[in-house]
Amino acid sequence: MKFRVERDVLADAVAWTARALPLRPSAPVLAGLLIEAGSFDGSDGLQLSTFDYETSARATLNADVSAEGKALVSGRLLADICRSLPNKPVDVAVDGPKVTLTCGAARFSLQTMPVEDYPSLPSMPEARGQVKSEAFAHAVTQAVTAAGRDDMLPVLTGVRLEMDGSTISLLATDRFRLSQRELDWDPGTPDISAAALVPAKVLADTAKSLTGGSEISIALSSTGAGEGIIGFEGSAAGGVRRTTTRLLDGEFPKVRSLFPSEHLTTARVDRAVLIDAVKRVALVAERNTAVQLAFGNGVLTLDAGSGEEAMASESIEAAINGDDLTTGFNPQFLLDGLGAIESPFVELAFTTSSKPVVISGVDSLDASGTEVDASFKYLLMPRRLLS
After folding, report:
1. What is the pTM of this model?
2. Mind listing the pLDDT tens digit for each residue in 212-254?
3. What angle do the packed helices 75-84 and 7-18 form, to 10 degrees?
4. What is the 3-state secondary structure (H, E, C) of the chain?
5. pLDDT 10s per residue in the chain (387 long)?
6. What is the architecture, at CATH level 2, of domain 259-380?
């Protein structure tokens, strides 16, 4: 194996591929990054791959190949080396049991691992459609806000991705909060109906890393659960990026019904003002205690703390429609939801003080003629207030 490649193209592809390397590989070869030189996607170049039996990453890139071949080297070491190279063409060749890398006056020699022990990467499943990469990355960032982090409940550590015609829905919950994000996409068939439960961390990392091109292709195996595979493909400078991951097994809870069909009290507030107020008041809230929110007379009053300890209170303007109401929430969960919304104002919609609130973005305090942004909804369970 022998090839020459531009430094920036190689460094970018290696960094993208190496990000999928396992922190604690179950076998030494899984810490390796597979380099293959040959013909890919109809032209000479390189293919870089990593795989940990769950998630695979594969990058193809243009290169001047003198001799075809393959080699397996430490992925993180290669990424560190490529990041430090001078801005000159990089020459790579296999020299016995080592791979030599030369860039200007810099020269490195890396020990190879046994290629024959490296597992075969899964094939990309059937492509189901395409979505704008920036829009998808933003939607995923919003959706994963409510994803669980408890590995004892693996189903809740995933995001349910639903494809229904020209709409993709992303749903996540950790039992205390629920996010729902919807966006348009270009399906391969107009009547598509499919769903997948994707690990939230993998989905977030993948969506963020594939914004180099204008669109992402989403591929999904026919089973859609358990042993199923989901794949994402996007273009990048000098080549193509592809990643696959196994879907989570188990039944995601039917959460759509948790969003109430009617609201008896709604309140609109300035989002940035509310975020700052929650942060200040929460400074005196003891661990696992709620911040109290009282709505009435055009004012939202926030309180935290107890009489025996530090206390805080702050009032902000609110456009309230309906009965006065007092409730309380985990301050960090409340901040997470507010932070996922980009609109200048938010609407908090209630049925009763003991039922969840639905938080959505709006463009004005004035409810007349201003529609709620229905593309993203964040539902948050209330917390018991200390008497």
Report:
1. 0.91
2. 889 999 999 865 444 699 999 999 877 899 999 999 999 999 9
3. 150
4. CEEEECHHHHHHHHHHHHCCCCCCCCCHHHHEEEEEEEEECCEEEEEEEEECCCEEEEEEEECEEEECEEEEEEHHHHHHHHHHCCCCCEEEEEECCEEEEEECCEEEEEECECHHHCCCCCCCCCEEEEEEHHHHHHHHHHHHHHCCCCCCCHHHHEEEEEEECCEEEEEEECCCEEEEEEEECEECCCCCEEEEEEEHHHHHHHHHHCCCCCEEEEEECCCCCCCCEEEEEEEECCEEEEEEEECCCCCCCCCHHHCCCCCCEEEEEEHHHHHHHHHHHHHHCCCCCCEEEEEECCEEEEEEECCCCCEEEEEEECEEEECCEEEEECHHHHHHHHHCCCCCEEEEEECCCCCCEEEEEECCCCCCCCCCEEEEEEEECCCCCCC
5. 999 999 999 999 999 999 999 989 999 999 999 999 998 877 889 999 999 999 999 999 999 999 999 999 999 999 999 999 999 999 999 988 999 999 999 999 999 999 999 999 999 999 999 999 999 999 999 999 999 999 899 999 999 999 999 999 999 999 999 999 999 999 999 999 999 999 999 999 999 999 988 999 999 986 544 469 999 999 987 789 999 999 999 999 999 999 998 899 999 999 999 999 999 999 998 888 899 999 999 999 999 987 677 899 999 999 999 999 999 999 999 999 999 999 999 999 999 999 999 999 999 988 776 788 889 999 999 987 554
6. Roll (3.10)
The b/e string for 354-368 (b: 16+ C-beta within 10 A; e otherwise) is: ebbbbbbbbeebeee
Domain 127-256 classification at class level: alpha beta
Whether 127-256 and 259-380 share one fold: the answer is: yes
What CATH topology corresponds to 2-117? DNA Polymerase III; Chain A, domain 2 (3.10.150)
Tens digits of per-residue pLDDT, 33-63?
A: 999 999 887 788 999 999 999 999 999 999 9
The structural domains of the chain, with segments of one domain joined by +, span 2-117, 127-256, 259-380
Crossing angle of helices 331-339/271-281, nearest 10°?
160
